[in-house]
Amino acid sequence: IARLGAGAQRAREFAAWYQSARPLEDASAERREEAGRPALVGFAADLVGRRERFAALCSYYEGRVRAVGRPGAVAESFGRLSHGLAGSAFHGLIQLGYGYAAGVDRMVAEGLAYMHFSCQPLAKPGQLHHNPPIAESFEQVASVLRAAVAQAHADRKLTDVLENHVAEFDKLPTSSFQRKMQCLGQYATQDLTALSVATPTASRDPGWLVDLALALFVDTALDESVDFFMLHGVTSAWALSQLAPAIRDFPAAQVHFVNALLATYVVQGAPELAPTILTEEEGGSNTEWPAIIEAALDHHRFRERDEHVYKLTQVAWERARDGSALDEAILKKAAQLVIHRPFRY
């Protein structure tokens, strides 16, 4: 919210609310258990995606950040984890990218540990080639993604996989979203990858990925709600764009990200993309950014102070300020939708 221009008092109000609304879980038992085990001395390939020894992974990545710095730690490990970006609803990537943008060592270490801990592969080795053509324009990237989304909606092959197999994952102690992601990772990597693998790389401007995710967020909005997980596609795209200078193989990272974004669209039902109309209360394309930002920060008038409202509004506004490839009306609409409409899970 500071990036949206909130003052110190407003930031303190949000911090107080967040602390009470999102209490930390007690991790003392895990730390005590970890104290009796040997520390990790190298990249623990056997722990990737196992959701085990998070404290040990944090300690390992804290050591790597101290040893080689934030860019070095990202460079040496991101490529070994990027095939599973959708794990825990993108939160490892989000933690990493936001921590990197803020210059906070601890957040970078936690983000890498979280990616390692919850990695959810959506492609098998050899399915994704890592040398896609470099896009010369945003439209080159956008047209391929739009075609992939349209195909996922039309042929229903991937949604049928979920309908036929997701019950096999019901006993896993995780969310419905993650169970569906694991189902796609088990049964549909070839079909999913066929949609994403031809996407040209946006290495000329990683912000194009943010624009793609923003457009998809707007296009999946319904008259009564916005999609919570497509919102995470936006914030994770922004996180990836912040990390781009430190990622050794950005084309590979992008292919994995597009794979995860398409999988999220499928998990959320592959809905038809149809424009939704802003109501009079929600404003319109003529509303200026200062009024939109004021509405986002005005938690007394609008709904509870949910961090996702601020994060998406900040991303949309900064893309407008920094030269988005999208029409500014789409960026404003994304912010207005997240301010005014409840989440659909």
Distinctive features:
345 residues, mainly alpha, two-stranded parallel ribbon, globular
Structural overview:
- With 345 residues, the chain is mainly α.
- The chain is 59% helix and 1% strand.
- The chain has helices at residues 8-21, 28-35, 54-77, 91-102, 105-118, 138-155, 157-165, 176-187, 189-196, 207-219, 228-243, 250-267, 289-297, 307-322, 328-340; strands at residues 226-227, 343-344.
- The protein has a two-stranded parallel ribbon.
- The longest helix has 24 residues, at 54-77.
- The model has no long low-confidence stretch (mean pLDDT 91).
Q: Helix share of residues?
A: 55-70%
Order of helices and strands: HHHHHHHHHHEHHHHHE
Strand tally is: 2
Please tell me how large the radius of gyration is: 20 Å
Rounded mean pLDDT score? 91
Strand order of the largest sheet: 1-2
Could you give the distance between the termini? 24 Å
Task: Give the helices and strands, then pairings.
Elements: H1 8-21, H2 28-35, H3 54-77, H4 91-102, H5 105-118, H6 138-155, H7 157-165, H8 176-187, H9 189-196, H10 207-219, E1 226-227, H11 228-243, H12 250-267, H13 289-297, H14 307-322, H15 328-340, E2 343-344
Parallel strand pairs: 1-2
Characterize this entry briefly.
With 345 residues, this protein is mainly alpha-helical. Helix content is 59%, strand content 1%.
